[in-house]
TrEMBL record:
<dbReference type="InterPro" id="IPR001867">
    <property type="entry name" value="OmpR/PhoB-type_DNA-bd"/>
</dbReference>
<keyword id="KW-0804">Transcription</keyword>
<dbReference type="GO" id="GO:0000160">
    <property type="term" value="P:phosphorelay signal transduction system"/>
</dbReference>
<feature type="DNA-binding region" description="OmpR/PhoB-type">
    <location>
        <begin position="2"/>
        <end position="108"/>
    </location>
</feature>
<protein>
    <recommendedName>
        <fullName>OmpR/PhoB-type domain-containing protein</fullName>
    </recommendedName>
</protein>
<feature type="domain" description="OmpR/PhoB-type">
    <location>
        <begin position="2"/>
        <end position="108"/>
    </location>
</feature>
<dbReference type="InterPro" id="IPR003593">
    <property type="entry name" value="AAA+_ATPase"/>
</dbReference>
<dbReference type="InterPro" id="IPR036388">
    <property type="entry name" value="WH-like_DNA-bd_sf"/>
</dbReference>
<dbReference type="Pfam" id="PF00486">
    <property type="entry name" value="Trans_reg_C"/>
</dbReference>
<dbReference type="InterPro" id="IPR011990">
    <property type="entry name" value="TPR-like_helical_dom_sf"/>
</dbReference>
<dbReference type="GO" id="GO:0006355">
    <property type="term" value="P:regulation of DNA-templated transcription"/>
</dbReference>
<dbReference type="InterPro" id="IPR051677">
    <property type="entry name" value="AfsR-DnrI-RedD_regulator"/>
</dbReference>
<dbReference type="InterPro" id="IPR005158">
    <property type="entry name" value="BTAD"/>
</dbReference>
<dbReference type="Pfam" id="PF13401">
    <property type="entry name" value="AAA_22"/>
</dbReference>
<comment type="similarity">
    <text>Belongs to the AfsR/DnrI/RedD regulatory family.</text>
</comment>
<dbReference type="InterPro" id="IPR027417">
    <property type="entry name" value="P-loop_NTPase"/>
</dbReference>
<keyword id="KW-0805">Transcription regulation</keyword>
Amino acid sequence: MRPVRAIPGAAEPAALRLGILGPLRVLRDDVPLDAGPRKQRLVLAVLLCNANAPVAVDSLIDALWEDGPPRTARKNLQVYVSALRNLLGATPAGPRIVHEMGGYVLAADEAELDWLQFERKVRDGRRLRRGGADGEPDGGAARALHEALVLWRGPVLEGMRDAAVIGRAAQRLEDGFLAAFEDWAELEVARGASLEVAERIAVVAQRHPVRERLRMTQMAALSQLGRRTEALAVFDELRRSLAGEFGLTPGPALVELHRSLLDDHESRVRLTPPRPAAGHLLPREAPGFSGREDQRRTLMETLARAGGRLTVITGPVGVGKTALAVSAAHRLHEHFPHGCHFVRLREENGTPRTPAQIMSRLLWSAGVPGGADRADPAETHAAWQRWLAGRRALIVIDDARRESEIRPLLPETGDSAVIVTARTALAGLGCCHRTTLPAFSGAEALALLRRIVGRRRIDGDEPSARRIVTAVGLLPLAVRVAGEKLALFDHMSLKDFLRRLEGARSPLDELAVGDVSVRARLAGAVADLPPSAAHALRRLGALPRSRFTLREAAGALEADEEAALRTLESLLEANVVAVPYAGTRVYEMPVLMHAYAWELASATEDAEERSPHPRTAGTEAGAGSGAGTGRPAATA
C-alpha cells in the first residue's frame, strides 16, 4: 500500500471513525452509520483503500461494473460520491472527498482510518525494536505491535473482495498484517513464550501453512513449552507442503532449528530473531505490475533454492528489469530472515555513485554501526563481508554498468543471494542464473494499458489500443507512460492519442508525462555506451527501418562485414540491438531506440550541413524533415 500523508490539524479524538480492517465500517461518535447501497459502499471502500491519493474515475467505474458499465456510469458515480460527501462530512481543511487529477481523493488521518493507524503503530514497533526496546522490561516494541494487531476485526472488507481492485488492496493489507504478526510473535517468543502466545501463533499458522518465518516461530514456541514432538511435527508438515506445492525445501534457518530439536532432547530452544536495523528495505512494488509471471516464478524458485546465489536480469532500457527484481524480492522475504536490501548504483539523475557511497548504503541497511563513517575502502569491504558471513539476506543491486561494480558486493561466504539488474550482459561475472527480458507480448502490453487506463476505455476501442502499444514497440516503460498520459487526460480518446503518436515528428515527443520521459531514459542508455558503440548506433539510426541485414549495417557503418559484425556484437551485448531470428544475420533495433538513434543521426547531419563545407541545397532541404527515409522528423 502506498505511503500517505496525514491531514494536518485534524482534531483528536475525531468524531468520524472509518474501518476496512474487517467489514466496512463507518462510525460517528461511535454510532454506526449506513453507508448506503452496495455500489455506494464499493466506491467508499476503494477510496478508503487509497486514502489521501487520487483514484481514477475509470478505476472506480471498473470496480462498480466489471462486466461492462452502463451509459450512465459516470452520472451514477457522481450520485454515489455526492451521497458519500453528505454522509462523511468535511475535514477542517475542506471537503472530505474532492475531484482532482482525473479522479477522486478521500482525505483521512490516522485517528479516523484504521489501516493508517495500523501502519503507524507497526512503524513505531519496528523503530523500537531496532532501538532495542524489546529487551527492556516494558517490552515497548511488542506492545506497539500488539496494539496494531488488535485493530484487525477480521478479513479486510469481508464480503466486498469479489471486486478485483478491492481484492488486490485487501491482499496487500493482509500481507502487512502477517509481517507485523511475525514481528510480534518473534519478540514474544524471544522473551519466553506463553501458552496464549503459542496458541495465537498456531491459529495464524494454520491459515498460512507455508510461511517459513511463522512456522519457525511456532516451532520455537512449542519447544519452550516442552512440546518438542509437536514442534517436530510442524517442521514435517511444512516440509511436505513446500515440496508438494512449490517443489521447494525449507530454508537453512529452519533446517538448523529442526536439527537442534533432534539433537537436544532436554533443553528447550529459545528463538533469537534476526534484527536488521531497517528490516526489508525495498522500494514499493510498482502499482499495477503486469506480465512477467513466468520470469518471476522462475526467479523466485532459483533464489529460494540453496545455491541460487546470483541472478542477473538484463534487457533493453525500459523493459522492466527493476520492477521484476523488486516484485520477486517482496515475495521472497520469508526465505531471507536477515532482510531484503536494495541499492541503486546511480543517483536519480543518472550520476554513478562512488563505491564508498554504495557500500555505506548497504552497511546502513544492514544495521552495521558506523557503516557510513568508515573512510578506509578495505575496512568498509571487510565490514560488509563480516556481516554477510553466516547470514541469509537478499541483496538487490540495481542498474549496474560493469562487472567491477558488482564483485566487491557479492557474498564471499554464507547463504545470502544477490539480484543484479543491468542493461548489458555482464558476462564477466561467470556462472550465474541469467534472465533476459524481451519486450512485452501484445497481450501483456494491452493488459498493462487496460490496468492503468481502465477496462471501459480500452475495451471500447481495442483496435486503437493495440495500435498504440505496437507504436511504442511493446516496451513496458513506454506502455506505462502512454497509459498514465491517457489516464491523466481522460478527455482524450484513444484515437486522438494514436493520431498524435503516429503524426508527431517523433513518437518520443508524446511519450513523456510528469517527470518521466522515455527519450531521457534512452539518452541515458546511449550515454553509457562506449564512444565507438554510440557512434555506430547513430549511423545505424540513419537506416530507414529498425530491422536490417548485416550488409545494410556494413553500408551504414562504412565498414566491411567482418568489422560490422564485431560492432554489432558489442551492441548486442549492450542490449540496444537484437537478433530476431536465431541463426541469421538479420538484426533489429527496438522501435523507440531506433527512433532516438534516428534523431541523433539527423542532428549529426544537420550539424554537418552547418559546417564550413555545406551540402547542396536539395540535400539541405531534405534534412530535418526525414525526406527520403519515410520517418517523421526528429528532435535534436
